Every structure is written in structure tokens, then in C-alpha cells.
Amino acid sequence: MNKLTIFSVSALIILVSACRSKKSVVAPPVVVMKTDTASIMTAESLLGNSLNQWTWFSSKVELEFEQNGNTTKASAHSRMYKDSLIWVSAGMFGVEGYRILINKDSMVILNKLGRSYQVMSNQSLAGLSDAPLSVTQIQNLLLGKPVFALKFYKLIFGKDSALSIQYPQQKFTTSHYYKKAFLTVDSTSIKNQSSSNFVANYSNYSVIDGINFPINNDISAKSVNNSLRLKLEHSEVDFTTEVNFPFTIPASYEKTK
């Protein structure tokens, strides 16, 4: 499995979710910022308070996945425990086809239709970067938050409402572009020195359980030999209900590489 394909699986895993209870949804409040102090601000001092704390996450999503011209529509359910677990159940027409579990060490994909399963180490989740994507970093991408700790980013003020943070590394650069009025991430970009790149656009932010969450995600990734696009629309988002993570591999299932 090539890097882009693995990364697309990772993106699909973190960005498809489901839950049980309906929540009130309101628009994020406008943030008042003193621009005359911008010269002494850092990414951490300006944006630190926007990183709301949470423990549990679940939501429902309708997704449209396009890869090299082929399009698939599906529904999925997932449950997440912060910094530790991501659980996904995905299928079509009410039939579960795949169940996926990511922990701190590995990702297991259960193919219920093919009666098989696959185990990959998190080293395989390198994607467009040349370092593994941790559970925390995958969850940050889902929530429309900076992938890495804010202390690594440089704060950049542009004209008018432009605001971004950037983290250049040896082989790739991660950038986040913000809506200045709300301090919410408008888009995330991960680019390396080759032609590979990953872009996630976030829209329709709503305050749910005190957390700004992007209801719509539009993700695209490209490399020399592959391209994909993933559109998601979330509903029934829940940051408060404790969930479990059922995952059993039947003895009759065959392990594949």
C-alpha cells in the first residue's frame, strides 16, 4: 500500500463519525483581538484558548469518497477517546462493511464482507509526512485543530482578515489558515518537497458542548500517481457522552497483508 493510499485511509478513519443524541448548535462567537499587540503575539498565546478540552467524541456523517475518478457514497459511525482510540463502523445500505480501530500502536481494519482483517503499525500511517501520524494528530485533523503543538508554529498576520500559522520541517511544511473573526481553522495544508500535498477545508462551524466544530469537511490529497477527495457532512455531534469500543476479530477471519 503506497503512502497516499495509507494516508487516505487515515483521513477517512478520523473524519467519519457517528453518535446518539442530538445537541443544540449555534454559531461561534466573534473574537475581539487587539491588532496593535500582534507584533508580540505567538501562535500559542493567541490561539491556545481556542483548543477546547474534550474526552469523548462521536457524530454521524454522510461521506462522499472519490479516488482517481471513482466515487463512492457511504455512511459511518465512530467513537473516539482523546489521544488514545479511534473506532469506526462504516457501510452502505444499512449493512456494516468495515470496522476499524486505531490505538497508539497500530491500526486494525476488519473487512466483514471479505471475512478478513489487516493489522498495520502506526509507522504505516506516515502519509504525506515522513513521520507517523499519531492518534492525537489524526484527531486534530478531524476537529479542525492544528496538527502539532502550537509552540512549533510561527504566527503570520496578513492583510485584512488573513491569519495563519506555519510549521516548516525538514521534508514537509504544515500550515493552518484561520478565520480571524472566530479564530477557527479555515483550511489545513500539508506539503512535502515532492509533488504530494494534502489539503483540508473546514466550514459551517458550530458550537457543540462548548467546542467549535466544523460540520463540513472537504479533503483532497494528491501525489504523482494518485488523487483522492473526501467530502463529509456531520450531524448529531456529541463531546460529552462516554462510549465503548467493541472490536472482536472472529477466529474464522483470515489475516491479510
Q: What is the element layout, followed by pairings?
A:
Layout: H1 3-15, H2 43-47, E1 56-67, E2 70-81, E3 85-92, E4 95-102, E5 106-111, E6 116-121, H3 135-143, E7 154-157, E8 162-168, E9 172-179, E10 184-192, E11 197-208, E12 211-222, E13 227-238, E14 254-256
Parallel strand pairs: 6-14
Antiparallel strand pairs: 1-2, 1-13, 2-3, 3-4, 4-5, 5-6, 7-8, 8-9, 9-10, 10-11, 11-12, 12-13
Helix pairs in contact: 1-3
Task: Tell me what the structure shows.
The chain has 257 residues and is mainly beta. The protein has one domain: Lipoprotein localisation LolA/LolB/LppX (outer membrane lipoprotein receptor (LolB), chain A, Clam), CATH 2.50.20.10. Helices cover 11% and strands 46% of the residues. The chain contains three helices and 14 strands. The chain has a 14-stranded mixed sheet. A hairpin with a 3-residue loop joins strand 8 and strand 9. The longest helix is centred in the N-terminal third of the chain and has 13 residues. It is globular. The N terminus is likely disordered.
What count of helical segments does DSSP give?
Answer: 3
Straight-line distance between termini: 9 Å
Instruction: Tell me, briefly, the overall form.
Output: globular
Tell me roughly what share of residues is in helical segments: 10-25%
In CATH, what is the class?
Answer: Mainly Beta
**How is the CATH topology named?**
outer membrane lipoprotein receptor (LolB), chain A
Instruction: Calculate Rg over CA atoms.
Output: 18 Å
* Uncertain runs: 1-8, 10-22
Q: Main β-sheet: number of strands, strand sense, barrel status?
A: 14 strands, mixed
Domain count, please report it. 1
Under the CATH scheme, which architecture would be assigned?
Clam
Order of helices and strands: HHEEEEEEHEEEEEEEE
Average pLDDT figure: 81
Counting helices, strands and paired strands, the structural category is mainly beta
Order of strands in the sheet with the most strands?
Answer: 7-8-9-10-11-12-13-1-2-3-4-5-6-14
Taken as a percent bin, the fraction of beta residues is over 45%
The CATH superfamily label reads: Lipoprotein localisation LolA/LolB/LppX
Tell me the number of strands: 14
